[in-house]
TrEMBL record:
Domain Fe2OG dioxygenase per the UniProt entry, residue ranges: 130-243
Keywords: Dioxygenase, Iron, Metal-binding, Oxidoreductase, Vitamin C
Pfam families (UniProt xref): Oxygenase-NA (PF09859)
Cofactors required: L-ascorbate
Protein name listed in UniProt: Fe2OG dioxygenase domain-containing protein
InterPro entries listed in its UniProt record: DUF2086, Oxoglu/Fe-dep_dioxygenase_dom, Pro_4_hyd_alph
Record's keyword annotation contains Iron: yes
Length: 245
């Protein structure tokens, strides 16, 4: 690894550590998503985009239209992950594990999450989940992603990340992140976000707790991407659990 690359990685990690985690935690509790701005430089985003055409980094390519997931393509990384992606995954997890444990506790779900990502991956591997899940997604004009949840086996982590690698309104237009929240016995609520290049958006994988008059209850959430009007949109997804397939 070049020294300049290592310095950029350490700079990105320092921005994660410097985040206002009290505010981030409260936003995740309230909304199911939160943002850390300008974590990756434009240079890092461009290098990750260039990596898309280097097949040695990937274990699987998915054409979204074939499976009716939307219109576009994505590729799952293989182990070992690129250094930047691996570091983000390991360094962010300890901030999110207490939030995940709080959610599971108030919803009276039995699973608890260890404090380190290495220990959590060991739990995945004990259930046969050994394949890397971080991925890069590419959308052209008209590309979109249907509403979904990223679950790859019995063991899953209830929070994940996305980093938009292209600059909105420069590299592409449209292509907003869309979240839907389904409250019990109510219509779905839709929320739209447009992170800037290099921002990290943390969001719920499947659900979040909501406090009602008789205690906490579970609200299910899904995420997707609205149609890209012009240009190309690349994004990096970082999921903390490993996959069966």
């Amino acid at each position: 690894m070049l020294l300049s690359e290592q310095i950029q990685i350490e700079t990105a990690i320092s921005k994660i550590h410097a985040g206002d985690w009290g505010v981030i935690t409260e936003q995740l509790h309230q909304h199911g998503f939160a943002k850390i701005e300008q974590v990756l430089s434009s240079t890092q985003c461009e290098l990750l985009k260039q990596m898309y055409s280097q097949p040695e980094h990937y274990r699987k390519t998915v054409e979204m239209q074939r499976y009716r997931f939307g219109l576009g393509e994505y590729k799952y990384f293989t182990y070992p992950l690129p250094n930047l992606i691996g570091r983000i995954r390991h360094e962010l997890y300890p901030y999110l594990a207490p939030i995940a444990n709080a959610w599971f506790r108030v919803l009276r779900l039995e699973r608890s999450f260890p404090s380190s990502h290495t220990e959590f991956l060991q739990q995945c591997h004990q259930h046969g989940q050994t394949l890397a899940t971080p991925l890069i997604l590419k959308y052209g004009q008209g590309g979109f992603n249907t509403l979904h949840q990223d679950l790859y086996g019995e063991v899953y982590f209830p929070l994940q990340l996305v980093i938009v690698l292209s600059q909105p309104n420069v590299d592409f237009t449209g292509g907003e992140l869309v979240f839907t929240q389904q409250n019990p016995r109510a219509q779905s609520k839709a929320m739209v976000m447009q992170p800037q290049q290099g921002d990290i958006l943390i969001f719920t994988t499947q659900f979040k707790p909501e406090k009602g008059s008789q205690g906490y209850y579970r609200v299910n959430m899904k995420h997707g991407v609205s149609p890209v009007h012009q240009g190309e949109r690349y994004s990096l997804g970082i999921i903390f659990h490993d996959a069966l397939s």
